[in-house]
Prior knowledge:
Elements: H1 2-22, H2 25-28, H3 34-37, E1 45-46, E2 49-50, H4 56-71, H5 73-96, H6 104-111, H7 131-136, H8 151-169, H9 172-181, H10 183-193, H11 205-222, E3 242-249, E4 253-254, H12 255-261, H13 266-272, E5 280-281, E6 284-291, H14 298-315, E7 317-319, H15 326-332, H16 337-343, E8 357-359
Antiparallel strand pairs: 1-2, 3-6, 4-5, 7-8
Amino acid sequence: MKYLVSVFLISILTVASAHSENHDLSEINPFPGLISRVRISVPLDFCGEAVELENQDVRERLEKEFLLTLWDRPQVALWIKRSSRYLPIIEKMLREHDMPEDLKYVAIIESALRPHAGSRKGAIGFWQFMQATGLKYGLVIDSEKDQRRNIFYSTEAAIAYFKDLYDLLGSWTLSAAAYNMGEQGLQSEILAQKTDNYYHLYLPLETQRYMLRIISAKMILSEPETYGFWYTPEDLYPPLQFDRLKLNCFQETPISIIAQAANTHFKVIKDLNPEIRGHFLAAGSHWLLIPKGAADGFQEKFKTLVSQWQAENKEHVYVVKEGDNLSAIAERFNVPLPALIIWNRLEKNKHIYPGDRLVIYPQNAE
């Protein structure tokens, strides 16, 4: 056995040696050398505020975050691919509010530009708003909608929040730190430590890393080719293409009807409007995104489909009887229990009572 292992190792070394003799080193190692790329020789800033590279502790911590970011190459590749879809929207909104463009890197670090990103603490969406903060800044967060998942509404709220943080702290760097740990916690540390310089503050470790992760993202996304990320425009995800319209629903309406009226699929409507929860749109007025070009004739088709759906509902109503439960009703009508729950906007463990009316689309109605 030892003999076989020795022969195997010698074979590998021989092949490697031959390879190195016949090929240029750059062909063997297509990625830039990490040590050379981590040498930071130019000034860095966040929103025009200098990063204290002359501070050896700051430099070492930045190098660590930078190397860890470079190490996760698939994640950076996804940042780059998603950036063409979402960053133009964020950049435009920041310009309209006269806000620093570097704030866009906060969204990248917070969510990797994923609408459904969530944390263990309950933060959700592109900008990772906690529910209380999201509600404070005007986002709708309830059983029907969660606007933290909407790129437009959540970015508007993030801009308002950052304006308040900057007015309070007078620094974009401190504002970003407060965005991560909360303004009250940061203010307490500033008072206790008698300094308002982010790079001199001892903060929770996550917040100490936070700004340096943002700077690392800025460095790489500003010059991706320098760090081994080569791509063509075709490699990037296409920008969002949509028509925006106002829809009035007089009652809860299935999203599938909206999809039909827009000549598309349920998933497309959900993907364009990630803030919508569940399978129905609540009664009321809603601004919706539908596929580009689908707005023509949409309203008329939608009204027709809703009328048809209302007529079908009347034909498929079952009145709950004594002793009924959801599982038994689903079995009786040969329909999946989850479908019964979806059709009637129920919770799995919700009690039903005699006289309740359920909509059922049975395969074998009794």
